[in-house]
Design brief:
The protein is globular, with a radius of gyration of 18 Å. Strands 1-2 form a two-stranded antiparallel ribbon. It contains 7 helices and 2 strands; from the N terminus they run ααααααββα. The two termini are 27 Å apart. It is mainly alpha-helical and 186 residues long.
Length: 186
């Protein structure tokens, strides 16, 4: 869903996001009953797509994944071929890492510093920060479609755990708690 850059109120954008989130939860919930073979094939296809996208749209990942032959990956267990990254790696390479050229760490920090309530950045991004309990805050940006996918993935996991306990979705209640502004991820 493309978001127009006209001045829309936060409430309108948030409602659109809630609707997209509900659709994403329903879509991801369909995968819960897949057998291992079907799930593994789907995960591998998604992983290859993600790595290809990152390599194509990010200067950092173009270098970081240069030696990886994505097409020769046979399972998600091939992830060990990619050197792990730390939060420091992310923060030190933020501008080159993001796949959106008009999104910078400086702008993200300014956005977080200016928040008085939850607010979309450039009407399409959710920018979040960790608490810096490790000594340095992590700042993360989610695009319009990625934010509901992130939230739906969390909810899908909760739903799967509930199903294993015999709790039906009709009777389950899930509460996710977070701050009223995005300057601290919980």
């Amino acid at each position: 869903m493309a978001i127009s850059q006209t001045a829309k109120s936060y409430q309108v954008l948030a409602q659109q996001h809630r609707e997209l989130l509900q659709q994403e939860i329903e879509r991801l919930s369909l995968h819960v009953d897949w057998d291992r073979k079907k799930l593994a094939a789907f995960q591998l296809a998604q992983l290859k797509s993600l790595l290809s996208y990152a390599r194509q749209h990010s200067q950092f990942y173009r270098r970081h994944l240069a030696s990886l032959n994505i097409e020769k990956m046979h399972s998600i267990h091939d992830l060990h071929r990619i050197e792990p990254m730390t939060k420091s790696d992310v923060m030190n390479n933020w501008d080159e890492m993001v796949c959106t050229p008009h999104l910078t760490l400086q702008e993200a920090r300014q956005h977080l510093a200016s928040l008085k309530h939850d607010q979309y950045f450039k009407q399409q991004f959710h920018i979040l920060s960790t608490s810096a309990s490790s000594g340095k805050p992590g700042i993360f940006g989610y695009g319009w479609e990625e934010w509901p996918t992130y939230l739906a993935g969390s909810q899908r996991w909760i739903n799967a755990v509930a199903r294993k306990q015999g709790i039906t979705m009709e009777t389950a209640v899930s509460v996710q708690v977070g701050p009223h502004i995005a300057n601290h991820m919980t």
